[in-house]
Amino acid sequence: MSPPADVEAAARAAEAFTARFGAAPEGVWAAPGRVNVIGEHTDYNGGHVLPVALPHTVRAAAARRDDGRLVLTSAQHPGADADVALTDLVPGTPGGWAGYPAGVVDQVRAQVPGGLGLLVDGDVPAGSGLSSSAALECAVALAVRDLLGLDWGPDDLVDVARRAENDFVGAPTGILDQSASVLCTAGHALHLDTRDRTWEQVPLDLEGAGLALLVVDSGTTHDHAESGYGERRRQCEEAARRLGVGLLCDVPDAAGLAALDDGTDEGAVLLRRARHVVTEDARVAEVVALLRAGTDPRAIGPVLTAGHASLRDDFEVSVPELDAVVEVALAAGAHGARMVGGGFGGSAVALVDADAVDRVTAAVAERAGAPRSHVVVPSAGARRLS
Ligand code: ADP
Ligand code: MG
Fold first, then answer.
1. CATH: 1.10.443.10, 3.40.50.720, 3.30.70.890, 3.60.15.10. Which one for 206-375?
2. pLDDT in tens, 317-339
């Protein structure tokens, strides 16, 4: 499934909005999903990340109302509209998909006494680790900013979107997803320091190098994805506490983690968790240095594969389905491959020669049971479409 161009996507959303609400929207906004090239589970440890935006987006067509209600409808969730008085918004209500946009609107309740109608349409695969949730929040945050004339910069958009997910929906996330959706630019990866929130755009011209970044959906989501994520966050906090540092990425290298090994099983687990975080942060620096030096991007392949081994063995968030995708992709000629996202299911990425895309896609479909793959071109961040 290749995503529609902006003009076509905007027209479709506007048309659906008009059909649903009986009047044209005041505008259409879009925000992309993301895939992280390297830097997994570093974003809540004060480390670095390197995402690219997907060509796939979530669109929000919106118009203000005068009846004090928030009316939400999604082309991907027919029959699950939400229609609530603004004064009735509380974390958790509305629930389900409507919680993400409602969590954004809730933060500007005082400024939208009249209400808001929103139609959502998107093609970011949901629940595959490609951050459809952040795409949805960011598209709505942009719409709200423009419609209400709010003075929000990029950091404000990121914060509003993230608070919707953390505080209203109740899903803990770092700032990677929303930052990528807002800040990424076409043809670049976003090198973000999650500690001080400074960022730089790193040129990533895969096409020019005869390469493609293939995102492979493993087709699995494990029930313990959320609890597993929460447990890893707590383990990272505990490791930092035992080491006497504020955040794990204050530790410069794996040698600085030795004190965690106190002879207990728990100490050994914390050491492995912390070792993933600290070595992963170093892998981000390594990949950025390679790309900045103008090296053939194939050189980053082994660093990605090392990142997978670390997520599998030290952080223990991979699953056999993801390991299989990575192994099969490498055997079929990928220069590097790794699972992406929180883990316990979701997607993997593989860096492959452009002329090997079909071969690798067929191999992961046949031998790793992963029939859905997308070629990802580093694309633009959140924007107004019409
Ligand atoms: P991910 O962000 O990795 O895709 P999440 O579980 O964080 O997975 O977010 C997925 C949820 O986001 C969906 O279950 C749905 O509630 C919401 N969502 C994503 N895309 C849309 C859409 N186009 N319309 C409505 N809700 C959406
Ligand atoms: Mg998400």
1. 3.30.70.890
2. 999 999 999 999 999 999 999 99
